[in-house]
Amino acid sequence: MAVAVTMVRMKVAILRHSAKGQRGGTMAMGGTLGLVLAAGTIYLAFLGGDWPAAAYAVWMLGWIIGPVFSGGGDETLRPEFFSLIGLPARRMAAGLLVSAFVGVAPVISLVALAGLVVAATTPVNALVAVPAMVLQLAVFVLLSKVAVALLGIALRSRAGAVAAGVINGAVLAFLGQAWVFAVAFGQGGQIPEFVRYLPSGWGLLAVRGEYPALAAMAVLIVLLLAAWAALLSRRAGASRPSARGRRPMRAATGRGAVVAKELRTWSRDLVRNHQLTFALAYGVFFAGAPLVLGWTGMLPWAAPIFIIMAAAMTANVYGTDGTVLWLALMTPGSSDVRGRQLAWLVTVGPVAVLVAVAFTLVTGGPWALVLAAVAALLGGAAGLVPLISVYGLVPGTDPQRRTGNPLRTSEDDGALTGLAYLTLALVALTGAPAVAVAALSGWWGVLVGLVTGVLCYWGFGLLAQRRLAAQGPELLHLMRTGRRPDGRAAAGASYKLPDMPKVQRAIVITGVSFGAIPLIPQGVLAAVFISDGRLRQSWFLATYMPPGLRWPVAIGFMVLGLAMYGVSLWLVQRAKKKT
Amino acid sequence: MTSALEIKGLAKTFGENVAVDHVDLTVPQGSFYGLVGQNGAGKTTTLSMAVGLLRPDAGTARIFGADVWSDPARAKQLVGVLPDGLALPERLTGREVLTYLGLLRGLSKDVVAERAEELLSVLELDSAEKTLVIEYSTGMRKKIGLATALLHAPRLLVLDEPFEAVDPVSAATIKMILRGFVAGGGSIVLSSHVMALVEQLCDHVGVIDKGRVAAAGPLDEVRGSATLEDRFVDLVGAGSTAARGLSWL
């Protein structure tokens, strides 16, 4: 146990230090979001039936797939730290496992697992829920660790990177579609029975009187721990993933050189290989899933989904490349942004067009809608990716300094995830005008798509270029140190909060980030639905309420949203006056 | 004659920590200038500000009279930089890095190909033709970095720790190239904390301590009758910790 205790202490110390800076904000934000989800899970546990089983299946998949998005999962303590101590692999794995329970994500998952107490059928079973919660959490954490370790090994070869991308994309796509189906058809009791028997449901089985499930979890934990220990010993000292390069560079201009460099990086960096296959697989499987029900209507949308997902995966392009930015700073006038845009388009564009044409041929339409979306989104994404990257830069770990976990491109995984979601939303917006016009007047939409695509590509690229020219040294410093420069240099680097106590800062960040949720969808939109008489609308809570409560709930949400903004604003103003 | 590099009043503060405190340095044309100081004395910060990689809080830097911040295009054309520990385009081979950078610098394709060939062979990197930079050893990274600094025929080289972690054979090659560069009329500023190396190579020296210039000028003036190392220890006033042994050994 001594090893485990030491590791836990070490992790607590590291987390305490990192909670102070910029990362503290992302941790607080992620934590709040997680608590909301946990509360939702406990609510589902009250509903009974298979709802909690489905919810825990989602938590489990989140643990497994999450690291793909968030840069390799929790790496506060790395196996490499201990490789010189000569610990036996299994003791090291056990120690790392215990320390893996320390952190924001495990605590939130434990809160969600409190639903097991709610779901218990008898008072005795409520007691059983306590060990069940712990075992279930251990299953989640270990599955996550084993998945990351397996992926790390897969990413040492191109075939592995591609295969992992396809599998991850497929799993995540089906997960997304499962929610859509459940909501769209509102089939309360019709969650497939097998969900109950997934490892994520074993805790529930135990608190419903099937005690062998506890033993099964214990056995699974031992097996996973052994697997993880074996994988850890393969990871230490792992060689960095990269493929050989041989094509001679034929570019003749500065911009051509940037394109050539980027295209080589796209094809040689196995992490980028993985990102792109992941995005493609996600698009294809997400749009293809309804084929199971015999519905082909979604199939042509594979290409637009692929484009949006590819943009989200690559939005931190400058951060991922790291301090190599110094070369661009030393060659003023070189067209780094334009070259990157072109390379992005050349990498994603042909595949997207091919998928769009092929799948729309299968369904026989709607041509105008799909082509309008593809044109607008390609231009929008190629414009937004460098722009988001220079404005929302998340400092990465330089490629030559990365550790055995190839997914780990940055230390600030929370910010990385946020950036991906932001990109999803913004890129999708760039497609909106073209799709709207195409829906109303057919082929005119394609023209609009081409025009907005070209405009986005040109305009956003220009903005990114200007930003890079004006703030290049600050961005380089941010990547070098992981910290934003103080004082005037931070002007324009994302809005800077005045100095205020940590708790207040967390409240402000939470209020500003999530105030829109109660105010707009749950408040304003829900009110619109109610006044329109449209009840039971997807996740608009007020529309599910009994008649007397509908308006109060919607108005209550609006007040809550306004209060979140108001309190944040008030705290900021007060802190500003003090300084 | 304008100086190759003229630094006036450069200052930089990170939070509470004053990294560089109004540094003035003049590097005459044709000189081989060594910048020495302890770890964290502010050498890297000073050099980064001098070449335009870090924005100073105050002060100016001119390269052959061209201000690095108001006339960056001309200043950066005249200087070749080897920063310490920054990334390169990692998924390119050495030759591809040089081709890429040469084209970015606006050189013609043929000139780039010719110079890349010569640099790779002189620096003995041509045997690793298929190796990506990310797989390079530390010494190879320094050499390819030096090649990128030399590629566009600059008149001033600014090198941050060019000999750190470089094996003796590679170091000899690098020294030979640097001496040749100065002999041909070029100017060099390099930072190091190896006194013997600076004494061996440089004709001018600047001692930086806690963000300030403790001494600067021609090597013989700065060191006087002592060795540079003794003079350095005098100037920066190293404590007595070095003399104390470890209690358990």
UniProtKB/TrEMBL annotation, chain B:
Lineage: superkingdom: Bacteria
SMART domains per UniProt: AAA
InterPro entries noted in UniProt: AAA+_ATPase (IPR003593), ABC_transporter-like_ATP-bd (IPR003439), ABC_transporter_ATP-binding (IPR050763), P-loop_NTPase (IPR027417)
Transmembrane regions: none
Transport in keyword set: yes
PROSITE patterns, sorted: ABC_TRANSPORTER_2
Protein name: ABC transporter ATP-binding protein
Natural source organism: Nonomuraea antimicrobica
